[in-house]
């Protein structure tokens, strides 16, 4: 995968039920008008990305606007199933990919589709050029759209563009090791081919998280849910993919810089990308053979590397190496959206039944999305996308972990670990 091949589009969707208080209101018209009003404050979204010297990206505020699609579907919310979670049936029809609109450069930065359902509810789908904003920035923008839809004249949180706060030093100076941007050849065939991909989501409620915690050694019992879940999924995914035992496997945690530092690095209202890519590396054999605490310690170490100096060093690396793509071979990326607030966006019809990403990134990434299952349990839903045979192995390994088992004998024989 090259930097030209990587899909930098972020897709989210929200399923919203009918509300008696909004009887007679058309969600398409309400949201279209609110988006137009909000873009006055978030005007860069109405422009187009250009590429300058050394591949530096810049927004030309052309005022060309975004894409907005109005649609109707002869289905009800109930027909999407009891548990509204990715993958969603017919999603391509619920967020139409307008031909010629999906490029990073010289294309609309936002595409929004509002689809009325015959039950009175509706679906709000969105595609964002991820070079403009992260999950927190998108949630801030959509919250503002919701406020305008409910009658506000300005967003409660001011829109702040100040990208210069993350500019590289002059002259640029890389002071940290950045294994997330290493140039690595895929000699071990660790890039996942796009054929025969299976999409599936996994729910982790209180009982599932408790089961995973029982696998953790006592000296790591204080670890966070994010850390434990990430370590377990990294191990299961590695086993499922059956890489060469000597292949390097990377875990990249996307860590939000907002609220991380005192004084804050990013001003209140900043809606650009404000996260760091924090990485640790292990061989596939190490992840499989060593206790779960090994992977957990690596995840904790990755998160702990989030410092202002690390972000400054990353900005300098972007300049000196002309905006390189992160390392792809053997990489698994995790993005925690539990506190982003996408499910809390209210256009006047109340909170969404589901609000979050539409699906996993097939080659690379999963997202942690807040979710309430049909039993009323609050937890995390994690979309996954793997080749179909690997998905079966992943499910088997995860099921074993939840039952207190680590690594089946059958999978050990397939993994062909080298003798120690």
Plain-language structure description:
Helices cover 26% and strands 22% of the residues. It is α+β, with helices and mostly antiparallel strands. It has a six-stranded mixed β-sheet with strand order 7-13-12-10-8-9. A five-stranded mixed β-sheet has the order 4-5-6-1-11, with helices on one face. It has a two-stranded antiparallel ribbon with strand order 2-3. Helix 1 (27-38) packs across helix 3 (135-149), helix 5 packs across helix 7 and helix 5 packs across helix 9.
Summarize the structure.
The protein is an alpha+beta fold and 420 residues long. The protein is built from ten helices and 13 strands.
Tell me the layout of helices and strands.
Blueprint: E1 9-16, H1 27-38, E2 48-51, E3 57-60, E4 67-73, H2 91-94, E5 110-117, E6 122-129, H3 135-149, E7 197-204, H4 206-213, H5 225-241, E8 248-256, E9 275-283, H6 284-289, H7 292-304, H8 308-320, E10 331-336, E11 354-357, E12 365-372, E13 378-387, H9 388-402, H10 409-415
Parallel strand pairs: 4-5, 8-10, 10-12
Antiparallel strand pairs: 1-6, 1-11, 2-3, 5-6, 7-13, 8-9, 12-13
Helix pairs in contact: 1-3, 5-7, 5-9
């Amino acid at each position: 995968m090259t930097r030209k091949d990587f899909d930098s589009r972020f897709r989210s969707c929200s399923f919203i039920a009918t509300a008696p208080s909004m009887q007679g209101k058309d969600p398409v018209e309400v949201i279209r008008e609110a988006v137009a009003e909000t873009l006055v404050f978030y005007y860069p979204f109405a422009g187009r990305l250009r590429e300058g010297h050394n591949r530096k990206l810049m927004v030309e505020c052309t005022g060309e606007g975004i894409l907005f699609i109005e649609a109707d579907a002869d289905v009800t919310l109930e027909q999407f199933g009891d548990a509204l979670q990715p993958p969603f049936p017919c999603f391509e029809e619920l967020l139409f990919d307008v031909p010629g609109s999906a490029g990073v450069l010289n294309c609309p930065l936002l595409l929004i589709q509002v689809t009325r359902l015959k039950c009175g509810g509706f679906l709000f789908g969105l595609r964002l050029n991820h070079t403009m904003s992260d999950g927190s920035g998108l949630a801030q923008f959509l919250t503002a759209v919701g406020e305008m839809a409910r009658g506000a004249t300005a967003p409660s949180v001011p829109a702040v563009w100040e990208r210069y706060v993350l500019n590289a030093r002059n002259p640029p100076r890389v002071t940290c090791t950045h294994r997330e941007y290493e140039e690595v050849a895929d000699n071990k065939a660790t890039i996942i081919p796009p054929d025969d991909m299976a999409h599936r989501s996994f729910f982790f409620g209180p009982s599932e998280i408790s089961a995973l915690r029982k696998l953790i050694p006592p000296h790591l019992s204080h670890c966070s849910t994010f850390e434990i879940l990430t370590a377990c999924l990294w191990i299961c995914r590695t086993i499922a993919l059956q890489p060469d035992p000597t292949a390097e496997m990377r875990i990249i945690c996307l860590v939000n810089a907002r609220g991380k530092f005192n004084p804050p690095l990013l001003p209140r209202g900043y809606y650009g990308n404000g996260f760091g890519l924090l990485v640790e590396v292990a061989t596939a054999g190490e992840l499989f053979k060593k206790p779960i605490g090994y992977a957990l310690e690596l995840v904790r170490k990755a998160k702990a590397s989030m410092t202002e100096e690390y972000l400054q060093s990353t900005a300098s690396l972007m300049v000196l190496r002309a905006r390189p793509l992160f390392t792809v071979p053997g990489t698994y990326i995790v993005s925690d959206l539990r506190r982003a607030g996408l499910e809390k966006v209210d256009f006047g019809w109340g909170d969404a039944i589901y609000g979050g990403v539409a699906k996993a990134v097939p080659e690379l990434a999963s997202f942690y999305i807040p979710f309430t299952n049909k039993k009323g349990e609050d937890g995390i839903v994690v979309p996954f996308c793997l080749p179909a045979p690997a998905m079966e192995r992943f499910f088997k390994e995860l099921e074993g972990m939840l039952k207190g088992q680590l690594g089946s004998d059958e999978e050990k024989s397939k993994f062909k670990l080298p003798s120690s």
